[in-house]
Amino acid sequence: MILLIECRHKFASEQELKGTTTYGDLGFRCIGKPGRYLTEFLICISQCGGSVAYLVFIGQNLASLFKLHGLTFASYIFLLVPIEIALSWIGSLSAFAPLSIFADICNLLAMGFVVKQDVQQAVGGDFSFRDRKAFNLGGFPFAGGMAVYCFEGFGMTLALEQSMRERRTFPMVLAISFAWITVVYILFATFGYIAYGDDTKDIITLNLPNDWTAIAVQIGLCLGLVFTLPIMVHPVCEIMEGKLKKKFWFQNFLNNDAESLITRLGNFGMYIGRAVLVIGLAVLASFVPSFGVLVSLVGSTVCALISFVLPASFHLTLLGSSLSFWQKGLDVLILLCGLLFAVYGTYTTIVGV
Asked: Which coarse location class describes where this protein primarily resides (predicted)?
C-alpha cells in the first residue's frame, strides 16, 4: 500500500492531475492500456469474489438458523437479492456512512459474543492442549490466502489517502490500523480454535449452540454484511459505468446542459446494470461449495496480484531510477514472493477442494 502511495505521488509530480488518481491510472502510466485493463479487471474480480463470499456467509448462517421446509442455502441468498439491488442503487459512498457504522456495531457485538462463547466452551469443556495440533505447515498456503483476503480493500488505498485532510499521516494511520486489526484477527482465531479444535468450521458461528445468544450473533453478522455488500460492489459499478460513459452511443443519453446530467433513460440503464450484477453474484454464490475454499482462492489469486505483484512492478517502473540497490531488491523480492504465493497458493487450494 505504501508503494502504491509513492507511485501516486511520483505520478502527480510528473504532470498536473485533474481529479483523483485511480489504481487503473497507475496501470496505464506504467504499461499503457493493457495495464489499465489488467488492473481494473483484477479489482473487479477481487471485489466480486468478496461480494460472493459475503452472500455465502449470509446464506449459510440463515440456512442454519431457519430450517424451513423447501428453503435451501441458495434460496436464502436469492431472498436477499431485492434488498441488495435497492442498496446498490445508492450512488454515493458517503451515503453509506450510517449503514457502515451500523454494520460495524453489529460486527463488534457479534465478535464479543463469539469470544464469550469460546471462553465458556474452553472452560466448561474437557479442554487440553494435547488435543490441539495448532500448527500444520502443509496448510500454510491455504491460511496465507485467507489472510491476504482478510485485509481486503486494497483497491481503495488511493481513494482513502486522497480523502484524508492530512495525507502525510496516512502511513502512520495505516500502520496503527493494520496492527490493531492483526491483533483482533489473531485473538479471535485463537479463542475459536481453543474452544473447538479441529472441529472448528470455516464459518465460526456455525459452531455456536442454538440458543438466543448465538441467534443474535448470527443475525447481527448477517445484517452487517447485508449493509456492507453494496460498498464491495461500488468499485465494480464505478469501473463498469466509467467505461460505459465513454462509449459514443451512450453519449446520446446525455443532456446538452452545462452539467451534462444523465437523463432518465441513462439512469435506468445504470440501475438495470447494477441489478444484473447483483443477480449474477447471487447465482455464483449459490454454486460455491465452501466458504473457506472460496476466500482462500480469491486471496491466493487476484488479491495476491493486486496487493504484491502490481504495486512492486509499478514502483520499479515509476521510481526505479531513483531507488537504491536495497530498495530495488525489496521491490523485486515482493514481486517474486507475490507471484510464487499466487501460483502455489492457488494450486494447493484447488487440489484441496
From this structure: membrane
CA separation for the pair 353, 351 (Å, rounded) = 6
23 falls in which pLDDT band (50, 70, 90)?
A: confident
pTM of the model: 0.76
C-alpha separations of 171 from 3, 15, 161, 166, 308 in Å: 11, 24, 9, 11, 17
Q: Hey, which residues does 254 pair with through a beta bridge?
A: 262
Q: What is the pLDDT of residue 258?
A: 41
Q: Mean pLDDT check: name the lowest of 15-19, 69-73, 125-129.
A: 15-19
* 8 A C-beta contact, residue 63 and residue 73: yes
pLDDT digits (tens, 9 = 90+) for 100-122: 787 778 778 877 888 887 777 77
Adjacent-strand bridge partners of 262: 254
Measure the CA–CA gap between 61 and 68, rounded to whole angstroms. 13
**2-351 carries CATH number 3.40.50.720:** no
d(CA 115, CA 93): 31
Query: Residue holding cell 496503527?
Result: 176
Helix (H, G, I), strand (E, B) or coil at 254: strand
For 81, residues 6+ apart whose C-beta sits below 8 A from its C-beta are: 278, 279, 282
CB 240 within 8 A of CB 102: no
* Of residues 179 and 25, more confidently modeled: 179
Which own/partner contact pairs does 106-109 have at CB distance under 8 Å and 24+ positions apart?
Answer: 106/220, 106/221, 106/223, 106/224, 107/220, 107/221, 107/224, 109/217, 109/220
Angle between helices 140-150 and 291-298 (to 10 degrees): 80
Under 8 Å CB-to-CB from 328, ≥6 apart: which residues? 316, 320
Cβ 6 vs Cβ 319: under 8 Å: yes
